[in-house]
């Protein structure tokens, strides 16, 4: 199921012409993501900046808009789709009197012009890389290394000159994807253990003499990169084994590869733990939103019109489709009304 990273959790449920974007993680296929939000006019209050950056890419790279025209286009999109946007616009002024939305639009434009629109369907994990990960012989570290490798390859797909760096501002998401719950100090210990074993290369600060000649801004940039790590065992030439096109549950890709009971949701494509009976088809979200007829039903033939209809397995006594059942109930109520009316007339006559 090819998706954009995902707008298939990103963009998965069509409801009255609108698409419900449930979760926006890393965007793999920006082209598909942009097409989906343009088709539905979607915007939310959580991922507003991420959506606006992708729209700004569309306006700049596809339509050739410069900054002024892009800002106006983003403003028009927000007026059309963001709830109470005009009211917020009147109130959102910083201490210098500059509109905060306009400043956000300009930042989105500056971010959009840095790289073209990416149209990558997914990334491949190769046999050599998986064998190297298996040498750790530790389930937790293996999952962590696999997820970090996925992030490194995603960045390389966006920038071919990338050398496998994974940035520290993504560590929270990485541990969440690997399903590892631990304290911050334990995270640093795990990363240090992988570095000691040669799987990661720590960011090296320049010599002290060079640091002394730097301005405060350059020093701050180096300090922010102290926890960045580079994957050292990337190998794109080996045999391709795992294709990752969904960024919601990266750790489950590795667990499925290792033989664990992992299923793909029949509705949204998300990876999920299977059950012991092997009957699970949907993830928790889709099972909660799906209609009972779609989820667990059998087909029956209506005794009145002969049409096939769906019915819950525990309601096997039903013999009519919903339309015929409604008509039959209506006729039954009419007959009961006439029966009661006639009995009342007979009693009055006898009196």
The number of distinct helices, counting runs of at least 4 residues, comes to 15
What is the number of E strands? 11
Helix content: 40-55%
Terminus-to-terminus distance: 77 Å
Can you write the helix and strand succession as a string?
Answer: EEHHHHHEHHEHHEHHEEHEEHHEEH
Spatial ordering of strands, largest sheet: 4-6-5
Residues in β-strands, percent: 5-15%
Quick overview of this protein structure:
The chain is mostly helical.
Structure description:
The chain has 351 residues and is mostly helical. The protein contains 15 helices and eleven strands. It folds into three domains: 13-112, no CATH class; 123-259, no CATH class; 299-350, no CATH class. It has helices spanning 30-40, 48-62, 67-81, 85-91, 100-112, 127-134, 139-158, 171-177, 184-196, 208-212, 216-224, 250-257, 284-289, 292-295, 322-350, and strands at 13-15, 18-20, 123-126, 165-166, 200-202, 229-231, 240-244, 262-264, 271-273, 297-301, 308-312. The chain has a three-stranded antiparallel β-sheet with strand order 4-6-5. Strands 1-2 form a two-stranded antiparallel sheet. Strands 3-7 form a two-stranded antiparallel ribbon. Residues 1-22 and 291-295 have low confidence and may be disordered.
Features:
15 helices; 351 residues; 3-stranded antiparallel beta sheet; 3 domains
Secondary-structure map:
Elements: E1 13-15, E2 18-20, H1 30-40, H2 48-62, H3 67-81, H4 85-91, H5 100-112, E3 123-126, H6 127-134, H7 139-158, E4 165-166, H8 171-177, H9 184-196, E5 200-202, H10 208-212, H11 216-224, E6 229-231, E7 240-244, H12 250-257, E8 262-264, E9 271-273, H13 284-289, H14 292-295, E10 297-301, E11 308-312, H15 322-350
Antiparallel strand pairs: 1-2, 3-7, 4-6, 5-6, 8-9, 10-11
Helix pairs in contact: 1-2, 2-3, 2-5, 3-5, 7-12
């Amino acid at each position: 199921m090819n998706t954009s990273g995902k707008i298939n959790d990103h963009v998965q449920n069509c409801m009255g012409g609108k698409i419900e974007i449930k979760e926006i993680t890393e965007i793999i296929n920006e082209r598909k993501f942009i097409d989906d939000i343009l088709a539905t006019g979607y915007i939310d209050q959580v991922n507003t900046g991420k959506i606006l950056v992708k729209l700004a890419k569309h306006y700049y790279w596809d339509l050739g808009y410069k900054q002024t025209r892009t800002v106006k286009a983003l403003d028009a999109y927000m007026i059309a789709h963001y709830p109470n946007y005009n009211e917020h616009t009147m109130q959102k002024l910083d201490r210098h009197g500059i509109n905060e939305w306009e400043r956000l639009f300009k930042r989105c434009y500056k971010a959009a012009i840095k790289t073209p629109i990416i149209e990558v369907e997914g990334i491949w994990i190769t046999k050599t890389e998986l064998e190297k990960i298996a040498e750790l012989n530790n389930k937790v570290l293996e999952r962590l290394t696999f997820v970090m490798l996925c992030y490194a390859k995603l960045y390389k797909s966006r920038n071919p000159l990338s050398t496998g760096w994974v940035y520290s501002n993504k560590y929270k998401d990485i541990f969440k994807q690997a399903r590892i719950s631990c304290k911050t100090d334990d995270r640093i210990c795990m990363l240090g253990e992988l570095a000691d074993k040669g799987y990661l290369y720590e960011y090296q600060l320049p010599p002290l003499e060079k640091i002394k000649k730097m301005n405060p801004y350059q020093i701050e940039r180096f300090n922010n990169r102290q926890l960045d790590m580079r994957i050292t065992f990337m190998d794109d030439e080996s045999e391709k084994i795992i294709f990752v096109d969904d960024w919601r549950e990266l750790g489950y890709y590795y667990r499925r590869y290792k033989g664990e009971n992992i299923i793909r949701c029949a509705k949204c494509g998300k990876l999920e733990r299977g059950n012991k009976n092997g009957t699970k088809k949907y993830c928790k979200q889709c099972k909660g939103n799906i209609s009972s007829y779609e989820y667990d039903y059998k087909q029956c033939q209506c005794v009145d019109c002969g049409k096939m209809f769906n019915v819950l397995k525990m309601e096997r006594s039903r013999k009519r489709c919903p339309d015929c059942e409604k008509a039959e109930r209506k006729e039954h109520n009419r007959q009961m009304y006439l029966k009661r009316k006639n009995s009342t007339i007979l009693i009055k006559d006898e009196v």
